[in-house]
Amino acid sequence: MCGIVGIITNEKRNLLPEIISSLKNLEYRGYDSTGIAILDDGQLKRVRRIGAPSDVFPPKEITEELRVSEEGFLIAIGHNRWATHGKPSKENAHPHFDCGGNIAVVHNGTILNHEDLRKELITLGHTFLSTTDTEVIPHMIEQKIKEGLSIKDAFLDTASSLEGSFGLAIISTDDPNRLLLVKHGSPLLFGVLKNTLIAASSTNAILAYTNTFISLSDGEYADLSVEEGSVSYKIGTILDREEFIKKEATIITDRSLEDMSKGDYESFMKKEIHEQPSVFRTTLLGRFNEETGDAVLGGLIDYEDVLRNAKQILTVACGTAHNASMVGGALIEALAGVPVRNEIASEFRYKKIPLNTADTVLFAISQSGETADTLESVKEAKRKGFKTFGIVNVVGSAIAEEVDAGVYARAGFEIGVASTKAFTAQLAVFYLLAIKLARERGMTAQKGRGLLLELEEIPSLMSTTIENTEDVVRELALRYAKQNIRTINFLGRGIHVPIGIEAALKFKELTYLEAGSYPLGELKHGPIAVIDKDALSVVIMPHDELFALNKNLLEQILSKNGSVIVATDEVGAKNLSEQDVDIIIIPTLKNTLLYPLIEILPLQLFAYYYAIALGNNVDKPRNLAKSVTVE
Ligand code: AGP
């Protein structure tokens, strides 16, 4: 959730523009306050402010405020905070200091035993200035140094007493040529350049400088230092400190700096909605054989037998990724006849599920590959003996590394906090997976080929959908946003239900208004009580065999004076021309199983334009973080 950055170099310069730019590149993950500490002229200097680094850290102003020495300095750390313990305030912003002001710490994660540690430190005479869990860390290090330990041992001993999750970076006046890192549960890595090392909680912070990085695993520390004019690093484990580990560097190939720019779009979210046709094409690329009618998922190749023999599939995911897995579940059941159980990760990890691990396989779905609940679910599933697979977007992320095998979603870099293109990329993988499982269970090559050809048509249908619906949707969103709608619900049946749930989630995230979703058939079993002139129902109902039934339910909403927007195809639209409803027309598809891929697009746009009408920040909605790396 929080973003951390640290720079160490052998070339003295003002590192503030670099550290601020890296912090800006982490802003999309969420922030409420931000801070920097530098080691300049033997002194630890700090600046902390409420707000985003883009807004509150003009490099020139900060350089003046910190009275940076003319020749510059070698070490700096920075942090974007997403408040978990204590309100956003200057005092709670990182870096946190010890009593003597010699040690500065930035932290991503949560310390579960901070209350006990704090009490103990207070009895030892330490004074706390914030309400954060993090502040115990510099004081513990200070205490251990007082007791005679080196900065490195004090740091690693402290890390081993912490419960919870952490990615930590520290600097100290006691050892002004050293930047120490340790990881347990929260992501931490460092980029490697000739004369500089850049530590960060995400590769996005280092991409402007290097595409080569080394990622730390849980329990590992990195000792980055400047000695005899050059930078070097050593990696070890908290338990075995002097036995150094050799780790391979990873090269980032799935993202570039252009992905981090809005281009001609006014927001990342709009750009990412519009990127969906090309992302879908990329996700499919090279992953099927038209001749044999097979989906070819290279990442799963070593587990062909396991997948062929699986009697049940379990998915674990959160939020949008969970909604994608519900569509995926419906597809796998419909095409391959394999039962699918969709579990929300934060529930799964604490649940006792009586499933046979021998013939049930688990798929974890995650855009970031960092979501704590999903990651822990994978670990728990492995402990129980399940084979685990991933559908993950970020290459080399914690979940991608933890699962036995997997398929990358290839959505590219998603900056908008509200997920859009990762969702349709995850759906693309699920269509391929469903075809693969179906072919292994008797679907003919001809049927497989037919489905693959239909999938190939989707990108152009997506483009048509966006082109044809965007103006209508904008007009509807602006109109309804002015109307003081009291409640809004997204309804559908069958495979459209998870699309309604995803549309409601997008709407809530962006507009900050309460929105609901339920299967249309449930209307009479309670929800109809909320329908009146101030209630808006958005009904997803392409023309299929249940259309007449759905139309009947729609009339019941109208009879209670509710407002209705229907997302339907050309045939459905003609059929509803007499009805007093607003209509969003999507292309007509022969295969109704493919509708989720196009019907979500106008609903993402609806949430987007409604939020714009309310004046909300669509890229960084309030209270949200891009990666939820804490429970
Ligand atoms: C999506 O718009 C949300 N920001 C959120 O629900 C997200 O999908 C969820 O936190 C899971 O994230 P992940 O895909 O990175 O695991």
Q: In words, what does this structure look like?
A:
This protein has 631 residues and is α/β, with parallel strands linked by helices. The protein folds into three domains: 3-253, Glutamine Phosphoribosylpyrophosphate, subunit 1, domain 1, CATH 3.60.20.10; 257-443, Glucose-6-phosphate isomerase like protein, domain 1 (Rossmann fold, 3-Layer(aba) Sandwich), CATH 3.40.50; 465-623, 3-Layer(aba) Sandwich (Rossmann fold). Helix content is 35%, strand content 24%. The strands form five sheets. An eight-stranded antiparallel sheet has the order 3-2-4-1-10-9-11-14, with helices on one face. A six-stranded antiparallel sheet has the order 5-6-7-8-12-13. α12 (372-384) links the parallel β19 (360-366) and β20 (387-392). α8 (276-284) runs parallel beside α14 (421-439). The radius of gyration is 26 Å and the shape is globular. It starts with a strand and ends in an 18-residue tail after the last helix. 2-deoxy-2-amino glucitol-6-phosphate (AGP) binds at residues 318-321, 366-368, 371, 374, 417-419, 509, 624, 627-628.
Provide key terms for this protein.
single chain; alpha/beta; Glutamine Phosphoribosylpyrophosphate, subunit 1, domain 1; Rossmann fold; eight-stranded antiparallel β-sheet; six-stranded antiparallel β-sheet; 19 helices; 26 strands; 35% helix; binds 2-deoxy-2-amino glucitol-6-phosphate
CATH class category name of the largest domain: Alpha Beta
Which fold name fills CATH's third level, the topology of the largest domain? Glutamine Phosphoribosylpyrophosphate, subunit 1, domain 1
Mean pLDDT: 94
Kindly give the count of domains: 3
What Rg, in angstroms, do the CA atoms define?
Answer: 26 Å
Low-pLDDT windows of residues: none
Name of the CATH architecture of the largest domain? 4-Layer Sandwich
Largest sheet: 8 strands, antiparallel
Question: Helix content range of the residues, please?
Answer: 25-40%
Order of the strands making up the biggest sheet: 3-2-4-1-10-9-11-14
Question: What is the rounded distance between the termini?
Answer: 10 Å
